[in-house]
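Complex 559.
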Amino acid sequence: MNSIKFSSILLLLLAGIALIGAVKVPITLPESVLPNNLKAVNGGSHCAACTLSLTLVQQYSFIHEKSIQETLDEICTFFPSKAGSVCTFLVDLFGSQIIYYFDKYNHADDVCHALNICTSPECRLFPNNSPNYFNEEHVHQEYDPIDPKVQENPWQWIQELINIWTSEHLPIDDLDKDKFSPMDTFRGSNWRGKDCDDTDANIRPGTLENLSEPNIDWNCNGIFGVNQQQQSYEDLLCGNSGAIGTIVSGDSAGAHFSLPPQWFNASEINSTTYAGIVDILEDEVDWPMRSAYTGYVPSTAQYSVQSVYLQMRERNLCNHRDYQNLGVNGANSGGTASKVMFSLNRNQTHDKPALFFLELIGNDVCSGHHTLDTQTTTEEFEKNILTILQYLDTQLPMGSHVVFVGLAQGGILWDSLWNRTHPIGTTYENVYNFLNCLQVSPCWGWMNPNETIRDATSQRAVDLSAVYDVIIKNYNFTHFDMQYYDFPFAAINQEWLAQGGQTWELIEPVDGFHPNQITNYLMGKYFFDQLSQDHPDWLGDINPNNNIIQSLFGNQGGY
Ligand SMILES: *[C@@H]1O[C@H](CO)[C@@H](O)[C@H](O)[C@H]1NC(C)=O
Ligand SMILES: *[C@@H]1O[C@H](CO)[C@@H](O)[C@H](O)[C@H]1NC(C)=O
Ligand SMILES: *[C@@H]1O[C@H](CO)[C@@H](O)[C@H](O)[C@H]1NC(C)=O
Ligand SMILES: *[C@@H]1O[C@H](CO)[C@@H](O)[C@H](O)[C@H]1NC(C)=O
Ligand SMILES: *[C@@H]1O[C@H](CO)[C@@H](O)[C@H](O)[C@H]1NC(C)=O
Ligand SMILES: *[C@@H]1O[C@H](CO)[C@@H](O)[C@H](O)[C@H]1NC(C)=O
Ligand SMILES: *[C@@H]1O[C@H](CO)[C@@H](O)[C@H](O)[C@H]1NC(C)=O
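Predicted structure with 2-acetamido-2-deoxy-beta-D-glucopyranose bound:
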């Protein structure tokens, strides 16, 4: 499973880890903690990280008429505490060489080659004839690392990051080991309803009321206590309400992967640009709290959030906090069957049923390899999905529902983006070709100038999606029924175009690959509307006690 390759290559900060993996430096970070794809593999992800970050450094120095040294120092101060320490560490390590090579060369591509981080001269982000950002006024300076400025030792944090990015995708802060956490990042409440008691595994979102002790909020939905007749509020207001949780297992699109575009646009970089980077990395660069399936944060002037969970909660306030997002960047059907699905926590006898989305929209047909042979076959796909379903049948409570989301049709990515400008200042075609050349593209098959290859990738995606219908026709499971929906990008795009929009406005600008915030919002509505038409009973009734719950329990403890 190439689970973190995609995110890792584009990250400025993890550029740091990549570089540390590339050179032997005397720090106490054992080689064994580095994930495989951050170890030196043909220069690929290290080269991408080096080239992207030094391109930004160079552009920033040009825009602000500063020397490379001033720029390196200044940009490091833009990163908060631990991240700033990593930045400073790297500048201390490489600063003088970077300055030296920027004296000689016009492009970060050449500097990263000179630093021996990039090894294939034909792989360039800026082809040789590109305009350059060489600063004519620039005077050579020696880098003087007398004052290392490192304030905080970041290695413990980096190890935690690596663990959460590569291991079981379970909350780090979870005393009672119920897979729910009082913390928000590190697979905490941004991903799964917040644990209101982290010392007792019987107290967790989604569980049924324990009538013997009504003053405890067993399921953390903020409804507890007794009325004057000593009747349990949970029982009175939620007991027969048909409450049901919302769960998604899937890939980076399910978890809502999104790299902030301002991180990669030198004109926008300022002292606040990287302020949120620590939380963002601790959430694996995903935004499950704004996703189509489990989003819960309120919309703001900047972005709109709608999700299946929010609409389920609106129907029945007893569903508060009953969501789990098991999305993992890079997950495909094999990885989900062998690993990711075990991060689910639903107790078949003591929890409420769940509306479970299985969304694997691309990684079975996508990789950085220059071949279609690594794609999952329909036989393998069917086997993997059946393994997942058989496991779910041992975990999901009776009365649950499983919604399959088909694979994307990624040809549209190339068609709508290839000649547009990426935030890094070159075309998407150049960015895609650079990543393909390094074999670190998230999807060589779709982000590819060759139409034959894009079409072959789309055909396999269609074939795999068709497996779901075969499964629905040929299998029954005890604890859930099943429904298939196409990945709704085409439907959403059609409506968007009809309203005068452009397709590129629906795609993540930095990776040129994932559905963005607008699309997540529209998908959240789309799935709920579809289910309202096709299976209104799956959504549970509208709870007639919602007003009472609201007046007695307010925001029900928030998130
Ligand atoms: C389900 O929950 C009950 C009570 O919390 C517990 O006793 C039981 O072991 C759980 N079952 C599983 C499979 O975890
Ligand atoms: C219900 O609560 C009682 C009293 O606190 C406790 O002994 C029992 O284990 C609980 N049962 C479950 C299933 O959590
Ligand atoms: C930094 O840039 C953002 C836009 O990207 C802007 O909203 C913000 O005010 C700027 N902050 C400072 C301190 O200049
Ligand atoms: C980009 O390419 C599309 C065809 O894929 C074409 O319709 C459009 O005019 C081109 N835009 C620019 C700015 O060249
Ligand atoms: C980069 O930021 C500038 C300033 O905000 C903006 O005008 C430009 O469109 C951005 N570039 C891209 C490709 O988004
Ligand atoms: C596109 O890919 C196909 C299949 O690999 C190959 O036969 C063809 O020559 C390629 N076309 C171009 C223009 O490179
Ligand atoms: C599954 O259950 C439905 C409804 O009970 C039944 O009509 C169908 O024949 C069953 N299919 C299989 C493959 O057992």
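Residues 1-13, 15-42, 145-150 have pLDDT under 50 and may be disordered.
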